[in-house]
Design brief:
Largest sheet: 5 strands, antiparallel
Structural class: mainly beta
Order of helices and strands: EEEEEEEEEEEEEH
Helix content: under 10%
Strand order of the largest sheet: 1-2-3-4-5
């Protein structure tokens, strides 16, 4: 699928409230997003422009200022994407669902992109992430090693040591839902 709109989800008095925020500058497929405080990062592949990689940023305190185009992550793979922000860096894992690993890249202001140790697994059709503590990121997705695509696997990445650890999985999952990290850790940010 593809997406071209950003919405805010809030739980008010036990009801889900969906509010339009802004349109993306271009429709994207294999979309992934993450927050760094008040900055929203969105990565994906353009639909109309020969599947070009796109990375854009939106300051949630200045939505009227619009999107800023950022340098896309390196590599030539086109496949599942998962983004996370941790330890002052933007992380994107990308991989083909038929492969055996997913490339991990980190973006630092001033230093640009660097390749990190690849995730030694692949996720079918995307995944989720959650920053944990000062130096760990939890990544989860549907395990492509299983023919029935019926197991969610969880991995942690240590940003300082550049290492991966498999921490388990969940059987009989027909899919995986993204739990937005800021709802878990703190109150959702207000968007004007």
């Amino acid at each position: 699928g593809r997406s071209d709109t950003v919405v805010s989800l809030k739980l008010e008095n036990g009801k889900l409230v969906i509010t339009y925020v802004i349109d993306l500058p271009v429709s994207l497929s294999h979309l992934t997003a993450t927050l760094d405080g008040r900055d929203l990062y969105v990565a994906g592949y353009t639909v109309e422009e020969e599947s070009r990689k796109r990375l854009i940023q939106l300051d949630l305190d200045n939505v009227a200022g619009g999107w800023e185009q950022l340098e896309a992550w390196p590599g030539s793979t086109r496949g599942s994407l998962v983004a996370a922000y941790q330890d002052k860096g933007l992380y994107i894992i990308e991989g083909d669902s038929d492969g055996t690993s997913m490339a991990l890249c980190r973006y630092d202001d001033g230093d640009g992109w660097s390749l990190r140790k690849s995730l030694p697994a692949t996720f079918y059709n995307g995944g989720v992430s959650l920053s944990l503590g000062p130096s760990h990121i939890l990544f989860g997705g549907i395990d492509t090693a299983r023919a029935d695509k019926n197991r969610v696997v969880l991995w942690t990445y240590h940003t300082v040591t550049n290492t991966w650890s498999k921490i388990g999985g969940l059987e009989r999952s027909n899919g995986i839902s993204a739990v937005i990290p800021w709802f878990i850790k703190k109150k959702a940010p207000e968007i004007d």
